[in-house]
Specification:
heterodimer, A: mainly alpha, Ferritin, two-stranded antiparallel ribbon, 4 helices, 61% helix, elongated, B: eight-stranded mixed beta sheet, 10 helices, globular
Chain lengths: 173, 290
C-alpha cells in the first residue's frame, strides 16, 4: 500500500471523496483481475469469491460516487488513480493458481485491514475537519467489512492453504 | 514529455494476462501503466517491443503499438523502430534469459549507440515459460530441471554489465514496491538516452521462496535511504556488485550530463545533409536513367 503526490494537509472534501471512490474502484478492478486469473487456471471456487468482492467494492464505489455528484456535480477531479497503489486492492502476490476459498478470504481480510490502516494513518495529517470526519467514517466502514469477511471465514471450509500443499506441476494450456 | 497525466487505464488493453497467479509481472505491467500515465504520451505515440518469454507478453497487455518479436532480438528491432520514427516513445521488455543470454550480444551495442529507449528486464532467475531451466542470472547452486544437483555457474550481474557498457541510466525495482517501481520507470522513460531498468520480478511457479515478493518486502533497501547519489558512477558500480546478495532498489546511475542520443545525432545529420540534397524527383530520375 502506498500513495504518491497526495498532500493530506490540503486535501479538500471533494478530493477526499474522489480519493475514496478511486480506492474502491482500484479494489474492484483488482478483484476482477484476480477472478479472471483464477478462472483461467481452473480455480472456480476462489474465483467465485473474488467475483463477489467485485460486486461489494462496486457498491461501495457507487455509493461514494453518488455522494460526490450530489455535492460537487460538475467540478473536475483533483486526484487521479495514479496516486494510489494497492490501498484496498489485494496485492497480486496474494493470488496462487491453486488457492482455496479460505486463502481468497484471507487475502480480502488483509486488504480490508490495509484500507482501515490507510484511513487511520492519514488522520493526523488532515487539516480539514470535514475530511477528517469522512476518513473516520470510512475507517469505521472498513472495520465493518472486516467483520463481514470474518463471518465468511468462519463459514469457509477449514482446509489449509493449498499453496503450501503438494500439488501437481502446473500444466500449460 | 511535459504532457498532462493520463488515466493509467488508457494503457490497459482488452487482452487478459495469462501469467500464473502471483507472478511478479502483474505488478510490473501496472507500474508501466502508471509511469506511462505520468509521462502523458498517448498510446499511439508509444511502441513497445519485446522478445520471447513470459514477460515478453507484456506489449499485448498495453494499448501502445506492440511487437512480441524474436527471442533475444527485442533490442535490434526496437532500435530499428526508433530510427524509423524517432518521435515514438520506445519501450523494450523481456526476461533475463532473453536479454542476457540469447540476446546478450545486443545489449552492449544498444548501449554504446545510446538510442533513446527504455529497456525493462523482468529478472526472475529462471526460464519460466519453458518450465524452469537455468537462466543467466540463476544463482550458483540453484536446483532446476537442468541442474539437478545445483548450478555450478556464476550468474551474470546485469547491473554491473550495463554500467560497464556505459548506460546513462541504470535502475532496479521490484513489484513489492509499486510506487518505487512506477517512479523509476517514469524516470527511465524521461531520460534522454538508453535507460536500463532491472526488475526483480519473481517466478511464482519455478522461483525460490526467498525470491518471492513477500521476501522482497523484508529484504529490499532503497538506495536513496542509504544516501546514494545517482550521479556518482563509481559508487553505482560498487552498489551494483551486491546484485544477487542484497536487493537494492532505485536509481543506481543517472548521467547528469546525458550525451546526445544516436537518434538525435541522426536527425542532426539528416538536417545538415538535407541542405545539399537533390529534390526527391531528381533522385528518382537518377534511378530511372540507371
Amino acid at each position: 500500500m502506498a500513495t504518491r503526490g497526495i498532500d493530506f494537509a490540503t486535501l479538500t472534501i471533494k478530493d477526499a471523496l474522489d480519493l475514496a471512490l478511486l480506492i474502491e474502484e482500484e479494489a474492484r478492478d483488482r478483484y476482477q483481475e484476480l477472478a479472471e486469473q483464477l478462472e483461467a487456471h481452473h480455480t472456480p471456487e476462489a474465483a467465485g469469491f473474488f467475483r463477489k468482492m467485485v460486486k461489494v467494492e462496486e457498491i461501495h464505489r457507487s455509493e461514494l460516487e453518488k455522494r460526490r455528484v450530489e455535492r460537487f456535480p460538475k467540478e473536475p477531479r483533483g486526484v487521479t488513480r495514479a496516486m494510489i497503489f494497492d490501498v484496498e486492492a489485494p496485492e497480486y502476490d496474494q493470488a496462487r493458481a491453486d488457492m482455496t476459498v479460505r486463502a481468497a478470504l484471507e487475502a480480502a481480510m488483509t486488504s480490508e485491514k490495509k484500507a482501515h490502516e490507510f484511513f487511520v494513518q492519514a488522520l493526523p495529517r488532515l487539516k480539514d475537519a470535514e475530511v477528517k470526519e469522512l476518513f473516520l467514517e470510512l475507517g469505521a466502514e472498513e472495520l465493518e467489512h472486516q467483520k463481514w469477511v470474518q463471518l465468511e471465514l468462519d463459514r469457509a471450509p477449514a482446509s489449509g492453504d493449498a499453496r503450501f500443499d503438494d500439488s501437481d506441476e502446473p500444466v500449460a494450456h | 514529455m511535459t504532457a498532462a497525466p493520463l488515466n493509467p487505464n488508457v494503457f490497459k488493453s482488452d487482452l487478459k494476462p495469462i501469467w500464473c497467479p502471483g507472478c511478479g509481472d502483474y505488478g510490473v505491467v501496472q507500474a508501466i501503466y502508471r509511469a506511462l500515465s505520468a509521462v502523458g504520451r498517448p498510446p499511439h505515440e508509444i511502441a513497445f517491443i519485446s522478445g520471447i518469454g513470459c514477460s515478453s507478453r507484456i506489449p499485448g497487455y498495453t494499448t501502445a503499438y506492440g511487437f512480441n518479436s524474436v527471442h533475444g532480438r527485442a533490442l535490434p528491432i526496437a532500435q530499428g523502430v526508433k530510427l524509423a520514427n524517432p518521435d515514438l516513445l520506445v519501450l523494450v521488455a523481456g526476461g533475463d534469459g532473453d536479454g542476457f543470454s540469447i540476446g546478450g550480444g545486443h545489449v552492449a551495442h544498444a548501449i554504446r549507440r545510446n538510442m533513446d529507449l527504455t529497456y525493462i528486464v523482468m529478472d526472475n532467475q529462471v526460464y519460466g515459460l519453458t518450465k524452469g531451466q537455468l537462466s543467466p542470472t540463476s544463482p550458483r547452486g540453484l536446483k532446476t530441471v537442468t541442474s539437478m544437483y545445483g548450478s555450478l555457474e556464476q550468474p551474470i550481474n546485469p547491473l554491473l554489465q550495463v554500467l560497464s557498457f556505459g548506460a546513462g541510466f541504470v535502475a532496479q525495482g521490484t513489484p513489492a514496491d509499486m510506487a518505487g517501481l512506477a517512479a523509476i520507470i517514469e524516470e527511465g522513460l524521461r531520460y534522454p538516452g538508453f535507460a536500463f531498468i532491472n526488475v526483480q520480478s519473481p517466478c511464482v511457479t519455478y522461483g525460490e521462496e526467498e525470491q518471492q515478493l513477500r521476501a522482497h518486502k523484508t529484504r529490499m533497501k532503497t538506495l536513496a535511504s542509504l544516501g546514494h547519489d545517482p550521479k556518482d558512477y563509481l559508487k553505482a558500480l560498487e552498489w551494483s556488485t551486491h546484485y544477487g546478495r542484497e536487493l537494492y532498489t532505485g536509481v543506481f546511475y543517472k548521467n547528469p550530463e546525458p550525451p546526445p542520443s544516436y537518434d538525435a545525432l541522426v536527425r542532426e545529420r539528416q538536417k545538415e545533409l538535407s541542405k545539399g540534397a537533390l529534390p526527391r524527383e531528381r533522385i528518382l530520375d537518377l534511378f530511372k536513367k540507371g
